Amino acid sequence: MKRPGIVLICSLLLVFVITLHAAADPLLSLGTTNVQPGDSTLLNLSITGEPGGTYAGVNARIILPEGVSVTGVSGGAGLPSGSFTIDHHPSSNGANEVAVIAYSGSGTYKGDSGVLLSLNLNVAASASNGTYAVKFAETNTNPLINSKHALSNADGSTSVAHSIQNGSLIVGSGGGGGTDTDGDGMEDVYEEKYGLNPLVDDRNGDLDGDGITNIDEYKKGTNPALDTKWVEFSSKGTEKGTFDEPYNTVEEGVQAVAPGGEVIIKAGTTDETSIITKKLIIEATGGSVFIGEEED
Fold first, then answer.
1. What is the DSSP code (8-state) at residue 128?
2. How far apart are CA 279 and CA 44, in angstroms?
3. DSSP assigned state of 253
4. What is the pLDDT of residues 219-246, one digit of tens each?
5. CA 153 to chain centre
6. Residue 118's closest CA among 51, 43, 49?
7. d(CA 240, CA 296)
8. Which of 211, 248, 204 is nearest to 228 (CA)?
9. In b/e form, how buried is each residue of 110-129, taking b as 16+ CB within 10 angstroms?
10. Which of 61, 85, 108, 187 has the fewest CB atoms lying closer than 10 Å?
11. Long-range pairs for 159-162 at CB < 8 Å and ≥24 separation?
């Protein structure tokens, strides 16, 4: 089996950072998210696999940075609504860990579904700025079960081989310092880097006119001066190209973004093929992205 990648016809610079894979074990991945001390944010647990793979459950023990707690877990677009039970609880081994699980007695989900679970992370007000790893546990606390991370087959009778990819939590600008002269929630170093005014509260502005406010760009770690469109293959709601209302095809994102802009694709799989004829940046987030048709 092989999966041809996107066809690129482009005389200008194209920064292409999507990971393309041949057939392989499904991938469980933790995303990357940005948050201010004392605030909360969502971190996604996603699956990426070959189309046709079907699963009945997932569980994982996730190691959190100090000062970070999980206040809730909700199902993502990859889990059929209403047919899965979702739960979480602190680890029993005394470490700053959380165990999450989604299971069903009758429902299943596809391996190319995208986001399975969204963890609501709360960060202590005393947390220092920096970039911190959020990792899958590497050892089992119970020798009788796979408590570190597991993916069950379609009837729930056995675990399926899979790979993992850890995520990260960016607190503040990720680089320390923390000065926010105008008190708009965005650090001076960030505003100066991207052409915002560190002396004016411009959190609700939209420097690049892409429909995403400056403060939301800051929280997501994106560039407020760069037109950004979001894509999530499993999205079925309103499509505006934003993080919360993304397009569901690469073509829509590519057509909508301004030349020199950025298309960010959430982890998932599509058999779509595209021809790109303008300068832009394409980036995968929250895990690997599979693009292209399978061939024998």
1. P
2. 29
3. H
4. 777 888 889 999 999 888 899 998 888 9
5. 24
6. 43
7. 36
8. 211
9. bbbbbbbbbbebebeeebeb
10. 85
11. 160/25, 160/26, 160/55, 161/25, 162/25, 162/26, 162/27, 162/28, 162/49
